[in-house]
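Model: You mentioned two targets. I'll fold them one after the other.
Researcher: Yes, keep them separate.
Model: Target one:
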Amino acid sequence: MTQAKELLTQMNDRSREVFRRVVEGYLESGEPVGSRTLTRTLSEKVSAATIRNVMQDLEFLGLLDSPHVSAGRIPTQMGLRMFVDGLLEVRDLDHDDRRKLDETMGSNSDNVGGLLDRVGSALSGVTQGASLVLTPKHEAPLKHMEFVSLAADRALVVLVFADGHVENRVFTPPPGQTPSSMREAANFVNALLEGRTLSELRTVMRTEIQRRRQEIDVLAAELIDSGIAVWEGEGNTSERLIVRGRANLLGEDVPEEDLDRIRTLFDDLERKRDIADFLELTDEGEGVRIFIGSENKLFSLSGSSLVVSPYMNADRKIIGAVGVIGPTRLNYGRIVPIVDYTAQLVGKLITDRS
């Protein structure tokens, strides 16, 4: 149980109602809500002083904040999360909103890309917010691939398919990767594309890795048999061929070019393993979550929230998501059913087309 949910279970009816009224008032007006305003709306008739005491307690718990001295209160990020998770009353989808969504997506076009473009436009128009559409992963021959470093632990892969479809996926790169190493990986992969799908590319990379390992084994076999070298961590991605006594090696009549060749093959093997990791991470993509404010670092600076719902194919497998990005004081009670209904529509339309 989260801290917010624990606090909710510990609150009495009065505290819970005061908290709910403050949040609802803030979401509706965008302004702090004062104790005098609440005395007119609470089901229980209590004084403004009593309400102020309750609001001070809620502020102490980290659920409310006062932007100015002697002003009303607004919900904190934790307070918004608790409200959304435990107190939000989701309304039925408005008839007019439903009609607009149905009309926008009522086209008979078989183009999934066009459908999802219309979904984004519909959500933006109905909610007056920025829409977010995560499309199903495209499994088609590739034309080009680029890796872009966003931060030390975040990277973007841009996939351009032969049919003109473009897809962006965010992933966490393997440790130690740099923008330069990502460019090298992209250059190598683009040289292999030749109309292959992402799955086929991964198979090619596994074959390349196996071939390189076999070359190293052949060259190193004599050194290992004679006891001059030994495998360390054999079979692991961090395996190394340890050469014992470099000075003694010269007397064993082992050509220096053999050692240079092994070193070169090892470097190449490690590069190919890194590229295979990139392709694996690209294929896995990123999961879907619901974020509020700085729970997502992408939105922390703008103070925005994302309400998102996944959509599924006929096998009940999540293949994408639709959502709305807006200020943290979104009208969640209205937005949530809109996003949910849109996700159901998209899932049904894509299933019908397949």
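Model: Target two:
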Amino acid sequence: MTLIEITPEKYDVDLDIRYASSNNFTAAPVYKRAVCFLNEEAAEKLEQAIQLAAAMGFRFRLYDGFRPTEAVQALWDHTPDPLYLSHPSNGSPHSRGAAIDLTLLDTAGQELEMGTEFDAMTDLSHHGALGVSAQAQKNRAILLGIMTAADWDFYRNEWWHYQLFRPRRYPTLSDAASGAEMM
């Protein structure tokens, strides 16, 4: 399986790869490099979503894409919570290059208010959470509409997570197998 690097220059997105920094729930870098990869189908569907967002005056900030199996294990070892993380034995849609974590930016490059931070492991992160502001609910609905129109599936517990339908048709990849050199 080929992984495509998603760069700001080619895809007109902003990258904030959280697992390459300490700005994530582990409070430590998990990746050595701040890069984003997707499998070929996911990269094509991201391009569709980017076009739909642009037509509405939005851009995307990407937090994560392909996540090597070593990173899936490291995150699980830190916080073994099946509501927000895939058990390593199941294989994550991220380790298949079939998932993307993202948010919307306005025309000034500012993140839209979504009610929680990325990777907030709380009920407020769920789609349809009523404990967030009406503006955050609206912004989440816009993101959901764009992504589903571009043929992405969503994960109900995380407003930022979208994945391909039937991601298990793709193999899970380690860092070595992917050639991504992230770990």
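Researcher: Noted. Anything on target two?
Model: The chain has a mean pLDDT of 97.
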